[in-house]
Amino acid sequence: MSSLSRELVFLILQFLDEEKFKETVHKLEQESGFFFNMKYFEDQVQNGEWDEVERYLSGFTKVDDNRYSMKIFFEIRKQKYLEALDKQDRARAVEILVKDLKVFSSFNEELYKEITQLLTLENFRENEQLSKYGDTKSARHIMLLELKKLIEANPLFRDKLAFPALKASRLRTLINQSLNWQHQLCKNPRPNPDIKTLFIDHSCGSPTGPTGARAPPPANSPLVAGLPKSGAFPPLGIHGPFQPAAPPTASALAGWMASSNSAAPHVAVVTGPSALTNPPNPALLKRPRTPPNNMSTVDYQSADSEHLMKRARPTSQPVEEVNYAVASLPQSSSLLEDIPKTVARTMNQGSCIMTMEFHPLQQTILLVGTNVGEISIWEVATRERLAQRTFKVWDISLCSMPMQAALVKDPAVSVNRVVWSPDGNLLGVAFSKHIVHIYSYLGGGDLRQHLEIDAHVGSVNDLAFSHPNKQLCIISCGDDKTIKVWDAMTGRKQYTFEGHEAPVYSVCPHHKENIQFIFSTAVDGKIKAWLYDSLGSRVDYDAPGHWCTTMAYSADGTRLFSCGTSKEGESYLVEWNESEGAIKRTYAGFRKRTPNVVQFDTTRNCLLAVGDDFAIKFWDMDNINVLTTIEADGGLPPSPRIRFNKEGSLLAVTTNENGFKVLANADGMRLLRAFEIRAFDAGKAPHEAAPAKVIMWHEIAQGPNSLLPVPTPTVPVVADRMERTTPVVSLSAANNVDNGRVTESKPRVADDVNEKGKTWKLTEITDATQCQSVRLPDTLPASKMSRLIYTNSGVALLALASNAVHKLWKWQRTERNPTAKATASTAPQLWQPASGILMTNDISDTNPEEAVPCIALSKNDSYVMSASGGKISLFNMMTFKVMTTFMPPPPAATFLAFHPQDNNIIAIGMEDSTIQIYNVRVDEVKSKLKGHQKRITGLAFSNVLNVLVSSGADGQLCVWGTDGWDKRKSKFIQVPPGRAPTPTGDTRVQFHNDQSRLLVIHETQLAIYDAAKLERMRHWVPWDSFSAGISNATYSCDSQLVFAGFFDGSVGVFDAESLRLRCKILASVHIPQGVNSAPVHPLVIAAHPSEPNQFALGLSDGGVQVMEPLESENKWGVGPPSDNGPVPTVHSGSGTANQGSEQATR
After folding, report:
1. Taking a C-beta distance cutoff of 8 angstroms, is the pair 969, 945 a contact?
2. How many distinct helices (H) and strands (E) make up the chain?
3. DSSP, residue by residue, 493-549
4. The organism sits in which domain of life (predicted)?
5. DSSP structure class, residue 1050
6. Which of 1046, 1065, 1043 lies closest to 1054, judged by CA?
7. What is the 3 state secondary structure string of 748-800?
8. Cα torsion for 642, 644, 650, 653, to the nearest 10°?
9. What is the end-to-end Cα distance of the chain in Å, rounded?
10. Is the distance from CB of 233 to CB of 179 less than 8 angstroms?
11. How far apart are CA 370 and CA 414, in angstroms?
């Protein structure tokens, strides 16, 4: 909005106030955001009109704009909450807690828990910090004084707290002046002009009427009534509504995304249909709001706003910064240990490497682009080139004439950029001539053409993937000075951003909360930022060096860095203060002159790396001085190109001899070694086997598991292309690697023969020394463990015993366990609040030992919902006190599941086979689902499919739509031959991380279903070494493994993709010796939320055991081979003879 338009709003505000349009004037203040009426705000606060207080504030700031805004909203909502508690209106207090205060839990979880705890007190003044809380009036007055200070300090309110100094009735004066000027232009001006409307220009009519008589005296006009002289329109109604104040001083654009630069009003031209999103709200464009991603230690009184994208504020009036306590960063010694510095691999590409990128999920897959237009995909662990493509135009008929002419003139093409899509299913290649190629990657060497885009005139300099409006897009930039956005599926152009005055060198898409934007840099050193709209750039800044610069965020997205080189060879690495659009930190240590543009990368939220001076230089993000320099055994170019893998355990660096080296830290070396273990080891003698007992593959092949289908992608034969079927490889999931890769250049028949000739060995752990295991200490009466769950933070384990008592174990922060996360290397403490009370479920009129227990934990770990045959209880996890109870039996609740998108909605499985969709906030059953014949034993939500899947003791699976809670599909699980035709007992369900595949657990089998179709994809049944039934099972946190407990006390670890057994843990490992009572076995099994190889067992003797593989192994066994050729149908005593036909057809 122009300055004159802004001033017109002030004139209208003055007029409305003079005319006593009180509600309208305040609505315009709020909607325009130009003037904050402190007096009105104070009145609303004193009157407790909280909805109006927040509505009025919303025109000027949002809760997550900066630390001052956060504190303002927090104080208001806290006061509202305390007043509800003071009135003993606990229902209203709970509503405020869940609806209004929960937003702060992501920034300060401990404070939110403390606020929640107030619900358990008879009088919240029992809390020491609130002991001096007086009556409502005085509390509001004290809060108002604090709010005024926060508002005055908030940069978003700068120049908005004082109304401009205007003469009274300024708008009337301007109108009268206009009418006066119009009247002077009249051909026959009347002494007393007749003003009937302002909608059209004034003009006096003829001095006489149609009959020649003079016109009658004019009707009085509200604007000119009582005027003494003709032609004069003095202002009327002299009275002043607002207190005058000094006019505001002009301020420069300060925020990165505040508004378009007035000095450079570039307009974006949309040349393609806008299919991504509608243009954002203009108010949003003025002030995108960005909460910090990780503020677990923030105190609301000093919440940092350094990484928030705020509205413009005057740079001439600095605001006092308030620091807040953060967890100390690793010391230099630990940072040095994290740096990949051991040369683990040296590979020859054959041509000069221009760009590299590690796969986002498969941590050892490296994509490489060269100066001759060639791309390669390398498996760096095994030193194998999986795929290779040279540049060629896929369809010349679709290319523009300028591109065809450029290729004819100079056919040489270089790769400027290679990049993976976030899920690793697509890869993009930007070439030095017009074109962008997009390939689909199906694993191994399966690389298929997806899109060819004639993107830019000249060179395509950079490429990136982004997800605006949850739609995958490709962002490109080039020598034609534009940035373009393309639909990644169709290749259709969505946006063209114009405004740079030089070729665009790089792009950096990012998002803050729901604000999606793109940074771009040009070779003239200009930095601009764009939203996905047609309103032009929001930023116009100069990068250090004023030449080629790239930008990147830290891994957690909270810190912005740029690195570049000037034309004179001076290099710069800086950190930006996003809120100010200014350089926060400049790193030192570059050589004085470099012949090339230096390249950089970030990792682990704490390290920066730059290729410079024939070496790799590392910085601690918080220290401007070089942390260390690594030469990687020499042979590096002056400015080597570098790239970390996602976990920061590997670092690829280019060499002088057209190759690259892979550097690794300790984690990286373990990752590489995991791949070096071949799936087949026929040459290893029996005495060389691992200490754990092993079972030969030819033995396993006689069981029903061998009938499982093995997916083998159809891959065209290409030189140097390798077959790879493992979907995900990371350090944390290295144990899932399929090591049976063979080169496609060999005949497939020979491959099969060679594979069959080798022996795979199932790892069998028979002794506690072969893994890490800890039995959790317990001083409470022993009772079998019915339910077990890790807290979402991974620092504690919560168990529900059959006697209806909950037990909570917490790990402490120690030198051996600096993260305080659950681990098998140290024992935790059985935690209880200071009151010493136990968290016990309602058991009125029930026998808890006979009841079916159920439990569900809130996402922030602050409260738990649980039942043991009686009422459902809501407990405070800090105090163990019951916050509320509901749904008394009969029927009793048998399973609980929180809705993933609304913690107020809970799906409750019942003893009578129904499912009740219950809204906690309003204490109301929204829907009652009927479809099972026996009690509900499992519930699982899918965000992707928008469904709820239920399982029952009747062996039936049902799929319900979460939009209208309609039943979509149902199917009984398939029972193995020889078993009862109708399955009985608990059937449990759990979604894979992809939210599409479903793990189904029953005593008789493990099965993977396609949830959308409710079709079984594969299954496994107990047999031979696992003759006992399955007691429980769960996915690992990354869904790459399945941990299963058995009634004979043993545990099996399976590959989740194929359901093939990879490791067996005997009962002697985790069950105490000398137990003479009934056999002990796992009743429940839980997977750690962030450690893929850690699980916990709840045992029938009341014990809880946490288990992990040895640190030297870092995995549970080795995955079985993925392709064993055809397997005959098996006839065995376990009754699996008829499975062959079903499995073989898949």
Report:
1. no
2. 17, 58
3. EEEEEE--SS-EEEEEEEEETTEEEEEEEETTSEEEEEESSSS--SEEEEPTTSSEE
4. Eukaryota
5. -
6. 1043
7. HHHHHHHHHCCCCEEEEECCHHHEEEEECCCCCCCCCEEEEEECCCCCEEEEE
8. -10
9. 63
10. yes
11. 6
Contact 1046, 1065 (CB under 8 A): no
Which helix or strand (DSSP H or E) is residue 405 part of?
helix 401-409
| Ordered mean pLDDT values, 10 residues apiece, the chain (1146 residues) | 80 91 90 92 92 92 87 92 91 90 83 87 85 86 90 88 90 87 79 78 63 41 36 36 35 38 38 38 35 37 33 36 36 75 91 93 93 93 91 84 82 92 93 93 89 93 90 94 94 92 93 86 91 85 85 87 88 85 88 76 86 91 91 91 92 92 91 65 40 37 35 35 35 34 34 47 89 92 92 92 94 84 92 89 80 88 90 89 89 92 88 93 89 94 92 94 92 78 80 92 93 92 77 93 93 92 90 69 94 94 93 85 42 32 32
The values of phi and psi at residue 928, to 5°, are -125, 115
Contact 900, 991 (CB under 8 A): no
DSSP structure class, residue 97? I
Q: What's the chain's average pLDDT?
A: 78
Q: How many residues are recorded in the chain? A: 1146
Question: Which residue type occupies 209?
Answer: G
Residue 923: φ, ψ to 5°: 55, 60
Q: Which two tokens stand for residue 956?
A: 């039936």
3-state SS class at 176: helix
With residues binned 3-state (H G I as helix, E B as strand, rest as coil), the percentages for the chain, rounded to 5, are 20, 30, 50
Rounded CA gap, 239 and 235, in Å? 11
- d(CA 1046, CA 1067) in angstroms, rounded, equals 9
Which residues contact residue 923 at a Cβ distance below 8 angstroms, ignoring those fewer than 6 apart?
91, 886
Cβ-contact 83, 54 below 8 angstroms: no
Nearest to 859 by CA among 823, 819, 901: 901
Amino acid at 977: P
- The vertex-218 CA angle with 215 and 221, nearest 5°, equals 160
Burial code (b: 16+ CB inside 10 Å, e: under 16) for 365-396 equals bbbbbbbbbbbbbbbbbbebbbbbbebebeee
Contact 57, 44 (CB under 8 A): no
Pairing of strands 1060-1065, 761-765: parallel
Q: Are 547 and 553 contacting, i.e. CB atoms less than 8 angstroms apart? A: no
Any residues with CB less than 8 A from the CB of 822 and at least 6 apart, and which?
790, 794, 795, 796, 797, 811, 828, 1088, 1091, 1094, 1096, 1106
What does the longest C-alpha to C-alpha distance in the chain come to?
A: 130
C-alpha span between 681 and 673 (Å, rounded): 15
Q: If residue 74 lies in a helix (H) or strand (E), which one and from where to where?
A: helix 67-86
Contact predicate 589/617, CB 8 Å: yes
Residue-wise pLDDT tens digits, 541-589: 888 888 888 999 988 888 899 998 888 888 899 998 877 778 889 999 8
Residue 266 and residue 499 in contact, taking contact as beta carbons nearer than 8 Å: yes
DSSP, collapsed to helix, strand or coil, labels residue 916 as strand
Measured CA to CA in angstroms, residue 261 lies from 102, 411, 530, 730, 1013 at distances of: 37, 41, 12, 44, 53
User: Cis ω on the peptide bond leading into residue 891 (within 30° of 0)?
Assistant: yes
- Residue type at 128? E
Q: What is the 3-state secondary structure (H, E, C) of 992-1041?
A: CCCCCEEEEEECCEEEEEECCCCEEEEEECCCHHHCCCEEEEEECCCCCE
Q: How much is the pTM?
A: 0.43
Q: Which of these, 728, 739, 652, 725, lies nearest to 367 by C-alpha position?
A: 652
